[in-house]
């Protein structure tokens, strides 16, 4: 159908209830629309008579192929322009069209100026009254930007995977109800199979003191959709507990509901569940300020520390007020062990002073 028939007053007049049938807009033809499309530099149209073998192409076709306008061109010339790696798979295009079948192919071409472009070729055959294919009509479209975006996305994903693999011990995907979709390298770390870890079975590899906190935080983050982050201790296949940071983020549906969680386990320190004791001299050097600071980090009162350390309240108060010079070393060690079990770490600072920090908060 001629393009002008699409814009005649047959349609526009009817849309406005006007009786203007038979009148056409003058001065507008299909060439105007072809030019509008081709001026973008990404589309070219072609036709070929099978008996003659020469391509009749639009200006956009030659522009897309990097050729001078109306260069003599046969289909075999286009095949020769195809990248060698794609040529074999697309050398049959003309044979398929001649058989009367439509085609849609994508391949790379190398233009005369040595630039490489991705091209989509769509074509269909025209037949004579006897049904014999005699001609073909086609359209080439430059789809290079689509392929470049796909390549960049692929490279970005590969870079992300390499980074995560470098810093994370385990990568996981879990549904909001706790069903595991994937738990990469978990069995290598803990010895627990995916089947055993499913449906919250992975909590068996977590330190007992931290399981309730993990469940509570999971429920809250699932409800709010906020990112997930918690320090925990994991029983490893190599023996003992090691400390990890578990971080996760939600993937949401279009309505904002959480579809699944993705996350990683990152080792935060190569420690067992029992923090190595500092040298005896450092234990002796613990004073009241260190104990008070450690209690404050844990939000413990003196009675809490007394109960956990098995040391009397009066002994702890003497130490904290600097009047415990005669306090026996086993009592100091018991206090230190209780604080460390609660999550406090005693270490040496840059000037060899004793530093107090919190590596895990015990609920």
Describe this structure in words.
This protein is of the alpha+beta class and 363 residues long. 39% of the residues lie in helices and 25% in strands. It has 16 helices and 12 strands. The chain has helices at 3-6, 9-15, 30-38, 59-65, 75-81, 84-90, 93-98, 144-167, 186-190, 194-197, 211-224, 280-285, 288-298, 302-309, 313-320, 329-342; strands at 43-49, 55-57, 103-110, 116-127, 133-142, 170-174, 180-184, 228-235, 241-252, 258-269, 344-348, 354-358. The strands form 3 sheets. Strands 2-1-5-4-3 form a 5-stranded antiparallel sheet, with helices on both faces. Strand 1 and strand 2 form a beta hairpin. Helix 13 (288-298) packs across helix 15 and helix 13 packs parallel to helix 16 (329-342). The longest helix is centred in the middle third of the chain and has 24 residues, at 144-167. It starts with a helix and ends in a 5-residue tail after the last strand.
